[in-house]
Recover the amino acids of this structure.
């Protein structure tokens, strides 16, 4: 069998599928292989092959099921102080994967919460010595300690990129489609270095380099992405994304730059220079300059620029997200199969507007209930407890104050959890659905006769990403 | 009961999609191609149902590396198969059990972490701190010193932050008085590292200790002090922090809490507030313990040098008044009355000697009176 498959052009032979491995599997896994039909013979099955027109992906998920999954997950996260998140993420992925149908066949997520927890604990084991080293280094460097914060952020950001790449590998190897796994090759270290260099370029160019950065990183990721033995690639061009996003970039960066220029023109620089000469010391000069009229005018202009930029950024964010998503989807290739997307931008805005509406409604209802509960508690206990004396007066200590502080924190934590649950369903799931339903795959027949070629990977990368706060679905 | 039907089979070696005949026979399920050749035979005990949209049953081998899959769209056959399979259930019982286990495990983990935070972290910090090299704490002190000066040196009048600089006779006398007071206490304290005490130009009635034996006595304290013993009492308390290496300990404790709460717990939405609250409560609790210990050290030190141990309690009560400013559990120092009582408890009446002469005390009080502009 092994020889036959080798002849069919399987690139690298997974040791677990070697004849010895299969024997072991027979013993352990109870898998009894009596015979197999030669793949070439089966490929003749008529109704599944030779589809020439593009195939649209479908989303089969039921939103009510997802609401229930997220609400239950949120409550469990609360009582386990977040530990349940590994199982919630697993449930979310299982749902989203199983709801995504490619050519009448759904994806399948095979990861488990326990894998994520173990990966996370291993990642903590890796990160703790690094944090300690960073701390000692900041002391040893002495004079450089002012910059040690920057160095630490850079090191951890690099680690974050490393983790993201490995987390992607974990997710791909846990994705099964038509009995085969996806997998990812390439080096996470190289990816992290690449991402950091592009990040520097992006900052230096005020975000202008970001389309090329995205395109380059996506090329690296997709070049190393495989479905079975079928390799992926990315055909999106940075220049095209740049042109599509240019207007948005101008609207966001324009007011900011205008504010800076106006501020520079307004400030009385010779006066500032004189102040520095008179007072010699930097801190003292800064203190003295707080009263300078031209500087406060300049600061107001700068603030105005930043404010307009921020408003544009908030209003245009869904538009950019939609443009980038459509561009990204349109660049995906797997073997000869190509993705095209006709994603409508308005559905992004609908999703965010609905989110806004839900959050406002939830906030009103939530705080109405919270205030009512406090009022009921107050009137019920008014006779038995004297609220005008300690421990209920401000500044007093004792069990009442502790109880008050704890209930305040709980009320806040539940509120945030509620808002996040709304976001996950109303925005995240919705946008997933919108993106999936916008996909058209041409030449999908190349997915019909792919060979297996993968081993699974560990969840340490995902754990690192989680510990660094860089995790994502 | 239905035991035969059709399905779609993926063998896990290629992505080929095959229509197959499925038969449940005995303790196994057999998958055959339309021409009757046996493709796969799985024991029912080994198969697991997998996530699919409703209306489709997808099964595979549990814990297998290859991802061979059989899909059954025929509802009757699917129901029959599930009825025969002990491990498989679509009622969600397995999932519920997993969730219960996760919750139970989480409670145990949280109890361990909270216990570790309340008792473990200070214990470990206490044990480790004395063994860390003094040189490391000195470097830490230098780094912290830069930050603290940036924060505290906010005066706009151009006078230096440290008082008593310059060569005028008054400055020299004031410096000599302060050094006499400090060196007397330092000699009696038998510290593991050298002291570096200064008077700082700040209006607050306070004194601070940084890691590495750096002490700043604020001008505001000298102004409010009625006797040299009160200043010496505060210095004794701060020297207690140095002797106990509380600066290093608090860094270790903060790191320990970051590990327990910042990393292991709390990385979930809304958890930030919980984590900050827990850390604040625990850190202030550690701090209250350290402050009480420093008070005791200061009082004993005052005995040794022949000062009045009760003076620290006196100035504490005078500056704080009676108003508590926050709930007890949010205070990083015990309340003033509590501290004064504790100090009084360990004080015995003993002969006191003057720590400074009257002219020296006057010189010290006016150490910040003149400052040479930079």
């Amino acid at each position: 069998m092994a020889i036959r498959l080798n002849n069919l052009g399987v690139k690298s032979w997974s040791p677990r599928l070697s004849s010895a491995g299969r024997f072991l599997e027979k013993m352990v896994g109870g898998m009894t292989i009596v015979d197999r039909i030669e793949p070439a013979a089966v490929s003749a099955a008529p109704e599944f092959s030779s589809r020439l027109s593009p195939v649209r992906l479908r989303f089969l998920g039921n939103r009510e099921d997802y609401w229930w999954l997220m609400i239950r997950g949120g409550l469990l996260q609360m009582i386990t102080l977040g530990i349940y998140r590994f199982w919630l993420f697993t449930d979310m992925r299982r749902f989203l994967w199983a709801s995504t149908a490619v050519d009448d066949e759904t994806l399948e997520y095979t990861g488990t919460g326990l894998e994520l927890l173990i990966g996370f604990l291993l990642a903590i084991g890796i990160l703790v010595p690094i944090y300690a080293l960073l701390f000692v280094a900041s002391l040893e460097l002495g004079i450089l300690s002012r910059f040690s914060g920057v160095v630490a952020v850079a090191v951890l950001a690099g680690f974050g990129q490393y983790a993201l790449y490995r987390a992607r590998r974990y997710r791909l190897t846990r994705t099964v489609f038509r009995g085969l796994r996806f997998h990812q090759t390439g080096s996470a270290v190289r990816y992290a270095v690449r991402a950091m260099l592009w990040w520097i370029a992006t900052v230096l160019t005020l975000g202008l380099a970001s389309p090329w950065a995205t395109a380059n990183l996506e090329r690296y990721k997709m070049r190393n992405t495989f479905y079975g033995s079928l390799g992926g690639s990315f055909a999106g061009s940075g220049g095209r994304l740049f042109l599509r996003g240019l207007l948005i970039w101008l609207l966001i960066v324009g007011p900011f730059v205008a504010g800076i220029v106006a501020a520079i023109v307004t400030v009385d620089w010779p006066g500032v220079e004189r102040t520095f000469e008179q007072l010699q010391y930097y801190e003292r000069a800064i203190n003295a300059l707080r009263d300078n009229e031209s500087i406060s005018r300049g600061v107001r202009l700068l603030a105005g620029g930043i404010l307009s930029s921020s408003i544009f950024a908030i209003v245009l964010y869904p538009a950019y997200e939609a443009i980038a998503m459509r561009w990204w989807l349109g660049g995906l290739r797997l073997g000869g199969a190509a993705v095209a997307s006709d994603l409508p931008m308005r559905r992004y805005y609908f999703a965010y507007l609905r989110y806004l509406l839900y959050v406002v409604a939830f906030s009103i209802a939530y705080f109405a209930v919270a205030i009512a509960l406090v009022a009921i508690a107050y009137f019920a206990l008014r006779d038995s407890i004297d609220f005008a004396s300690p421990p209920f007066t401000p500044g007093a200590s004792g069990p009442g104050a502790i109880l008050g502080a704890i209930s305040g924190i709980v009320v806040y934590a539940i509120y945030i959890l509620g808002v996040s649950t709304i976001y996950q369903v109303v925005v995240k799931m919705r946008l997933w659905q919108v993106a999936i339903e916008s996909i058209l795959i041409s030449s999908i027949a190349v997915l019909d006769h792919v060979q297996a070629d993968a081993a699974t990977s560990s969840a340490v990368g995902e754990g690192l990403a989680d510990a660094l706060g860089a995790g994502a679905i | 009961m239905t035991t035969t039907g059709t399905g779609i089979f993926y063998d896990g070696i290629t992505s080929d999609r095959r229509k197959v005949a499925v038969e449940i026979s005995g303790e196994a399920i057999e998958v055959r191609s339309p021409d009757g050749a046996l493709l796969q035979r799985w024991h029912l005990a080994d198969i697991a149902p997998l996530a699919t949209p409703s209306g489709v049953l997808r099964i595979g081998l549990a814990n297998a590396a290859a991802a061979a899959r059989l899909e059954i769209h025929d509802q009757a056959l699917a129901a029959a198969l599930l009825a025969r399979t002990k491990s498989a259930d679509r009622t969600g019982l397995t999932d519920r059990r997993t969730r219960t286990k996760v919750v139970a495990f989480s409670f145990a983990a949280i109890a361990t972490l909270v216990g570790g935070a309340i008792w473990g972290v200070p214990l470990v910090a206490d044990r480790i701190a004395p063994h860390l090299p003094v040189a490391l704490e000195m470097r830490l002190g230098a780094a912290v010193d830069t930050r603290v000066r940036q924060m505290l040196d906010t005066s706009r009048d151009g006078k230096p932050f440290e008082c008593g600089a310059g060569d005028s006779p008054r400055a020299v006398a004031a410096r000599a008085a302060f050094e006499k007071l400090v060196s007397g206490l330092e000699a009696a304290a038998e510290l593991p590292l050298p002291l570096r005490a200064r008077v700082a130009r700040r209006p607050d009635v306070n004194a601070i200790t940084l890691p590495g034996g750096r002490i700043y006595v604020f001008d505001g304290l000298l102004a409010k002090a009625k006797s040299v013993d009160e200043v010496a009492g505060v210095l004794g308390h701060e020297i207690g922090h140095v002797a106990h290496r509380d600066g290093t300990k608090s860094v270790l404790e903060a790191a320990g809490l970051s590990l327990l709460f910042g990393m292991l717990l709390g990385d979930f939405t809304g958890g930030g507030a919980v984590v900050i609250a827990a850390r604040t409560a625990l850190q202030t609790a550690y701090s209250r313990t350290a402050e009480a210990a420093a008070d005791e050290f200061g009082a004993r030190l005052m005995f040794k040098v022949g000062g009045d141990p009760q003076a620290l309690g006196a100035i504490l009560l005078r500056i704080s008044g009676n108003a508590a400013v926050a709930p007890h559990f949010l205070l990083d120092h015990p309340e003033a009355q509590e501290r004064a009582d504790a100090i009084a408890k360990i004080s015995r009446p003993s002969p006191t000697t003057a720590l400074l002469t009257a002219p020296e005390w006057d010189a010290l009080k006016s150490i910040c009176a003149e400052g040479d502009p930079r």
User: Anything to note?
Assistant: The two ends of chain B are 99 Å apart (CA to CA). Chain B touches chain A through 80 residues (CB under 8 Å). Chain B is about 50% helix and 15% strand. The beta strands of chain B are 4-10, 18-25, 28-32, 38-43, 47-50, 57-61, 69-72, 196-200, 207-210, 214-218.
